[in-house]
TrEMBL record:
Active site positions, chain numbering: C55 (cysteine sulfenic acid (-soh) intermediate)
Species per Swiss-Prot/TrEMBL record: Rubrivivax gelatinosus (strain NBRC 100245 / IL144)
Record protein name field: Glutathione-dependent peroxiredoxin
Protein family per UniProt: Belongs to the peroxiredoxin family. Prx5 subfamily.
Residue span, Thioredoxin domain: 2-168
Taxonomic lineage of the native organism: Bacteria, Pseudomonadati, Pseudomonadota, Betaproteobacteria, Burkholderiales
């Protein structure tokens, strides 16, 4: 499993882009993890699935609400990663009003989840292999903090906890 001091694995996540810009076409776009994290401080939080209760009612909304404070504490971007495709992540992001605060990254084949070891097997519940619920602070592609939730819990991967870590000087 990924640990503090490790570099994020090479690979791609996929993001649905609502408005085409230079370098980003309308629709699903591949995001190279190494290039996208280079020279940046990024909070990456993972969760089991789009449109699920805790994820939709508490996890993502917490990061949307704290986005400005996270940026003021030195965070360049906030990424939500889930084992869903870019279309689902885009629709979920629109529903939750994340525009400009959280990048919704699809890990449709669970490649990132498997490569980090941050998986959750929900096969018995009809959901297959998913991402564990976690939060990490990544600086220039290297993991500086990592908090993984126990099964069924939501206690250490919320935005307020990450913000407290940043305020305590975890990056210094």
């Amino acid at each position: 499993m990924l640990k503090i001091g490790d570099r994020l694995p090479a690979g791609q996540l996929h993001e649905y882009v609502d408005v085409a810009t230079e370098g980003c076409a309308l629709g699903p776009n591949a995001v190279d993890i190494g290039s996208a994290t280079a020279g940046k401080t990024i909070v990456v939080f993972g969760l089991p699935g789009a449109f699920t209760p805790t994820c939709s009612e508490r996890h993502v909304p917490g990061y949307v609400a704290k986005a400005a404070e996270l940026r003021a504490a030195g965070v360049d971007e906030v990424w939500c990663v889930s084992v869903n495709d870019a279309f689902v992540m885009g629709a979920w992001g629109r529903q939750l009003g994340v525009q400009g605060s959280v990048r919704m990254m699809g890990d449709g084949n669970a490649d990132f989840a498997r490569a980090t070891g941050l998986t959750l097997d929900l096969t018995s519940r009809g959901m297959g292999l998913r991402s564990a619920r976690y939060a990490m602070i990544v600086v220039d592609g290297v993991v500086h903090t990592l908090a993984v939730e126990a099964a069924g819990k939501f206690e250490v991967s919320d935005a307020e906890t990450v913000l407290q870590q940043l305020r305590s000087g975890v990056l210094q």
